[in-house]
Amino acid sequence: MRSELFYRTLISILFLPAIIFILWAGGIYYLLLIELFIGVGAYEFFVILNRRGLKPYTTLGVIVALILGWNAYFASHVFIFLTFTLLFFVISISELYRKNLDQAIYHISATIFGAFYLGWLMSHLVLLRQLPVTVQYQDIMHNLTNLKLYYFSPNEIFGDNYNKGRIYSIIPFIITWLNDTGAFFIGKKFGRHKILERVSPGKSWEGAIGGGIFATLGLFALRMYVPWLRVIDCLILSILGALAAPTGDFVESLFKRDAQVKNAGTTIPGHGGILDRFDSILFVAPVVYYYFKFFVVS
Q1: pLDDT > 80? residue 146
Q2: Using CB atoms within 10 A as the burial measure, which of 43, 91, 268, 288 is most buried?
Q3: Cα dihedral across residues 273, 275, 278, 280: positive or negative
Q4: Proportion of the chain above pLDDT 90, given as a percent
């Protein structure tokens, strides 16, 4: 137990500054970081599906999940639809030639779901980092002559406006990490009333409330350095995050319980796999993105 706690602490000390540094830099470096998370996380999830007795197309699913991350970076919404369409066509045709024709629906569905669960949901971290670019890009597209600058050096075209993406994309991490921290300590001390004991016995309503309070305090602390982040934004995002974060955790716990595995992987010592560490953020990132997209960024 002490050894696991040591590894968790050590990895957090090394891991978090690296993520924040790359997030701050943005551009292709941030994309490659998220692609690493997507690729490893997708592979871990397909392993879980195999443990459950399903036979998804693992390699194809991981590739499609990675492509979804690239699509998000280039704001290629048409290609997102194209990617899923081609995936469906390819695996459907492949099923026609599988030796055993039973459970074709499960094989196809598992592959598509695996690519969507990791590839699409985690791509929202890329969408958040690129949000100021995609909005401003639409306005100045007709004046843009050197597309390479947009693809590889957004700061050279969009200047300080691109830096807002740092705040957009760090908010899901703040909400998730502080929510998990608050839920752990408050739940351990005061947790009496379980939320979904049959799915995750350790989660309590007291912990969920504590996590929400920690996340709220974190966002208000961030607001001290980010003038354009309104009080209403902090309140709404903290409430939505307090709902989304444990939901993501519960969903991943449901998958692992169904497949009878303890952890999704062993990629991060003391934390399990990428999927174990980012299960909550898979739900928080889309919530934050669509909030900013529809109610803040114009």
Answers
A1: no
A2: 288
A3: negative
A4: 47
pLDDT of residue 147: 47
Whole-number Å distance between alpha carbons of 113 and 136 = 32
pLDDT tens track for 161-212: 677 888 999 999 999 989 988 888 888 888 788 888 888 888 888 889 999 9
Alpha-carbon distance 225 to 171, whole Å? 13
Hey, where are the domains in the chain? 2-295
Tokens of 89: 């066509």
Token pair listed for 284? 């928080």
